[in-house]
Specification:
By secondary structure, this protein is an alpha/beta fold. The protein is 48% helix and 20% strand.
């Protein structure tokens, strides 16, 4: 039986012709052929018989460098090892291929992508709209909404809407935004200063804490309840029994004293 190293050496020795011809042949086996034929260009890597380059730079299953071999020898090595030949770098000449279990590789990649998406925090921008001449009660309600959004770790976009002659008094909206920023400065900071945008004036307030930190702070550390040991439970049981006996003795004595007092009262002189 011929060893894999001998088969690799034999495959390399069969490669003849100048390097430019090999590069030209490999260049013709790119995704451009699929595009010229009107087919769909797949984003997945080519595997096994789908690899059309005449030779590849082969990497072993443990990351070892085997060298440049023919694609047929690489496929034979993959079959002998019960693995797949996967094209990991198709844009180089010759393309780089690796021996791996492609199904397991795709599963692990999907798990890693799902974990990375789970750890990401999505920033949400809430919007609150005010009028320059807002009622004090309405202002308190809007401020409560802003505080709730900041506590949850979300940004708040505050919009002052001007109508009619109010557009000639932008200082009213500016003072209102400054007042709101001062009222919620313990929970957030002014991320975007007030600026005029047509008939509106916009300011963005960002929270001091990120959403992930807010969730961790809200959850708090787990509270572990102390579990009593068997010795402590055994020691506490006799003490409770003694206390119960003592209470029964005191109660019986009190009842006896009460009965004696009633008898003395009945047998006394008329």
């Amino acid at each position: 039986m011929v060893s894999p190293a001998a088969r690799i050496a034999r495959g390399v020795s069969r490669l003849t012709g100048p390097a430019s011809l090999v590069d030209t042949a490999a260049a013709g086996n790119t995704d451009g052929g699929d595009e010229a034929q009107g087919g769909h260009i797949s984003a997945e890597a080519r595997i096994n018989e789908r690899i059309r380059a005449p030779e590849v730079r082969l990497i072993g299953p443990k990351g070892e460098q085997i060298g440049i071999v023919s694609v047929n020898d690489a496929l034979k090595l993959a079959q002998d090892a019960d693995l797949d030949l996967v094209e990991v770098a198709p844009n180089v000449r010759p393309p780089v291929c690796k021996l791996m279990d492609y199904g397991k590789f795709k599963y692990e990649s999907a798990v890693k992508a799902r974990e990375s998406r789970k750890n990401q925090t999505q920033t949400i921008v809430k919007e609150i709209k005010l009028r320059p001449k807002i009622d004090p009660h309405d202002y308190g309600t809007k401020k409560g909404h802003v505080e709730r959004f900041l506590k949850a770790g979300d940004k708040v976009k505050v919009t002052i809407m001007f109508r009619g002659r109010e557009q000639s008094r932008p200082e009213l909206g500016f003072r209102l935004l400054q007042r709101l920023a001062g009222d919620v400065e313990e929970l957030g900071f002014v991320e975007s200063q007030p600026k005029q945008d047509g008939r509106n004036m916009i300011m963005v307030i960002g929270p001091h804490r990120k959403k992930s930190e807010t969730k961790a702070h809200t959850a708090g550390p787990p509270q572990d309840r102390p579990v009593p040991s068997p010795r402590a439970a055994a020691a506490a049981a006799p003490a409770e029994t003694d206390n119960a006996d003592t209470e029964q003795a005191v109660t019986g004595r009190a009842r006896a004293d009460a009965s004696a007092a009633d008898g003395a009262a009945v047998s006394g002189p008329a």
